[in-house]
Amino acid sequence: MTPPQNRRGGPAKKPSGGRGRGAGQGGARGASGSPRGAGAGPGAGAGGGRPRGVGTTKKSQPTSMPDRPRSKPVDVHDPDGIRLQKLLASAGVGSRRVCEQLITDGRVEVDGQVVTELGVRINADQVVHVDGVRVTLDESRVYLAFNKPLNVVTSMNDELGRIDIGDYFGDRKERLFHVGRLDADTEGLLLLTNDGDLAHRLQHPKYGVLKTYLAQIRGPVPRDLGKRLREGIELEDGPVQVDSFRVVDSQPGKAIVEVILHEGRKHIVRRMLAEAGHPVLSLVRTQVGPIRLGDTKPGKFRRLTKGEVGELYSAAGM
Predict the structure, then answer these.
(1) What are the phi and psi torsion angles at 103 (to 5°)?
(2) Which residues contact 190 (CB under 8 A, 6 or more apart)?
(3) Would you name the residues annotated as active-site residues?
(4) Model confidence over 27-54: pLDDT tens digits?
(5) With CB atoms 3.0 to 4.6 Å apart as the test, which of 4, 212, 216, 310 could cross-link to 287 if both were Cys?
(6) For residues 222 and 115, what is the distance between their CA atoms, to the nearest angstrom?
(7) Per the record, which residues fall in region Disordered (predicted)?
């Protein structure tokens, strides 16, 4: 596997301040498609007969919202808040006119309630979905995709003085959470955010958010390796199963394989492949949920787009 460039060759001194600030924020969007539950476009709702109360003049029906458990109707209007269509426009959903149309078409939910009145006011702490995809209204929230280099510790302040991600983000005013961890000898995609609820869901195996890795292993790769990994490998702390496995490239004595799983245990990919008889030579995480590493360079980061943040929420069931 061709490793990313510009690596250090062993222990190094802490880099000087200001490193990483603002780097890569104009990068290309990392997600290639919506995950499960990522929006119910026109006509995507459950089918059914003509609703009661419809007059003899045929009218177009509003887009149905995705099926979701409904709580008892509550009043979501906050008289001291901001008009819903204005908040949606500020969040990048569309122009004010487009947002008004989304509301009147019944495609907007606030705290689980469909809102069709243009006079409704809400605050940025309320939960809003458009076509089933959550919209981020709080402008103080930060969502970053970072390409962690080799020999960088996944810690904001390493007690041993090693180079860590705090050297790249320690001067930011927000308190950032890293979503999961990557070993010092593993590189690739690491998400950082100050949205604690989302960070928790993305790394908890209960919510099944998939992580994709490219591993270089010793070859040749036997035909039944994928089957064995999907059926499960027994480790000292319990079995592990991959969600997907494929051989990307094969050369004499080594191969590159793609491993997708929702597990997050320490060294899980390395331990699993070693137990299967194919120790990892190098490892890169290339994707978390719908977010791809893309062409972000090692040591650089980019802000996620509004659409990518919505896809992450959908992947985490929020």
Answers:
(1) -65, -50
(2) 145, 146, 147, 148, 154, 165, 178, 179, 180, 182, 285
(3) 183
(4) 434 433 333 333 333 333 333 444 443 3
(5) 212
(6) 56
(7) 1-80
Does domain 140-208+294-318 fall under CATH 3.30.70.580? My reply is: yes
Q: Which CATH architecture has domain 210-288?
A: 2-Layer Sandwich (3.30)
Which residues lie across from 31 on neighbouring strands?
A: 291
Please tell me whether the peptide bond between 239 and the residue prior to it is cis, using omega within 30 degrees of 0: no
Task: Report the distance separating Cα 107 and Cα 127, nearest Å.
Answer: 14
- Transcribe 125-171 into DSSP letters: TS-EEETTEEE---TT--EEEEEEPTT-BS-SS-TT---BTHHHHTT
Reported pTM = 0.69
CATH 3.40.50.970, applies to 82-135: no
The DSSP secondary-structure symbol of 197 reads H
Q: Which tens digit of pLDDT belongs to each residue from 207-243?
A: 889 999 999 998 889 999 999 999 999 999 999 999 9
Under DSSP, the state recorded for 227 is H
Which tokens in the block code for residue 241?
């199963």
Same fold, 82-135 and 210-288: no
